[in-house]
């Protein structure tokens, strides 16, 4: 994106992309399950974390969703809206998106060299020397668009952060996987429910039980723990909170419309009916049985035979089950990287470095990570555009 707009803006300078990847755009090809979720209907700064939301907004509004749709339409990629608000190419093929970007780069006279791994970028007076095993190149301006560390086999292995550091930038105290599945102990009953998908609310709670962040969406039980949009969305908040305070915890509400008190009340009024009958229509039976067993209740026990403690234990597991998360699946399974170069270190109108004039940054190397649903690409398109235009200034 940065190269396309730089190529379109400059007529008298050459624009060269150096990419370490053997296969260009591998991350685009695997994105959105091979369909590439290009953007989202409603993009605003609240869908992002990392740098200040005000800074993120300033960049996003320079190239918004209608502009993204128009840009791709101009490249021959028509996008369709899905019910979830996500936008995909009508072809349902990520290849369409990648091919269109490569053609646009070609038309903008951009030279793409690959596999060209960049090991070092040095500033020498008013020029940069970019070097790798292939040799070296001199440039007046350099853009670091090396991505984060997720799915390192695609070429984005985090080396860009080391390059940014060598040129005087700081990076956030922490860099960690985001949009990543979370693991549970192997013998946890959730692992035995592998394949079950259900809408649920995930709550991040402080050690005192205060709700800090909440996501309600489809939730997937797997053999290793939990995945699905709700889990991916909350993962970066959980990982960060846990690093700050190991007592932070994640709870799940399997009945997003109900509170613990409401369920306790319903169980109290069961009479001869059973928890299985009461909740059988609202939850899959497999899950309901597992929750009852975890609360030491036989699911067909009539309500009037449940002790107060049993009733409370079940209501709590249904609406506020504490998840004993053991970790996350790491960068090989993460869709984004949290942390990176803070936006406070770039001029937001051009994305040029405040510390190293002539150096520009865009995309996931910046300390910006978005929710699932096309937000990370929208950040890449918008910040890439700002760089491309900014280079020509
Ligand atoms: C499995 C998966 C699915 C995803 N699906 C979606 C989705 O549907 N929608 C969405 O919005 N987001 C999605 N994302 C996130 C999205 O792909 C990224 O946020 C986005 O690609 C970031 O763009 P970028 O250009 O900053 O970095 P990248 O796309 O990672 O590109 C960085 C490029 O830099 C190159 N590079 C890195 N280091 C060097 C070096 N030292 N020398 C030379 N070249 C180097 C790499 O080879 C790579 O081509 C997904 C991510 C993953 C992993």
Structure report:
The protein is α+β, with helices and mostly antiparallel strands and 393 residues long. 32% of the residues lie in helices and 23% in strands. The strands form 8 sheets. Strands 17-16-13-14-15-12-18 form a 7-stranded antiparallel beta sheet. Helix 1 runs parallel beside helix 12 and helix 8 (260-268) runs antiparallel to helix 11. It is elongated. The site of flavin-adenine dinucleotide has 30 residues, from helix 2, helix 6 and helix 12.
Which key phrases capture this entry?
12 helices, 32% helix, elongated, 3-stranded antiparallel beta sheet, alpha+beta, 7-stranded antiparallel beta sheet
How does the SSE layout of this entry go?
Blueprint: H1 2-9, E1 15-18, H2 26-34, E2 39-40, E3 48-50, H3 53-60, H4 65-74, E4 79-81, E5 86-89, H5 94-107, E6 110-113, E7 120-124, E8 127-132, E9 135-139, E10 142-144, H6 159-166, E11 176-178, E12 182-183, E13 197-205, E14 211-221, E15 225-227, H7 229-244, E16 249-253, H8 260-268, H9 275-279, H10 285-294, H11 308-320, E17 321-323, E18 327-328, E19 336-338, E20 346-347, E21 352-353, E22 359-361, E23 368-370, H12 375-391
Parallel strand pairs: 1-6, 10-22
Antiparallel strand pairs: 2-5, 3-23, 4-5, 7-8, 8-9, 11-19, 12-15, 12-18, 13-14, 13-16, 14-15, 16-17, 20-21
The structure holds flavin-adenine dinucleotide (FAD).
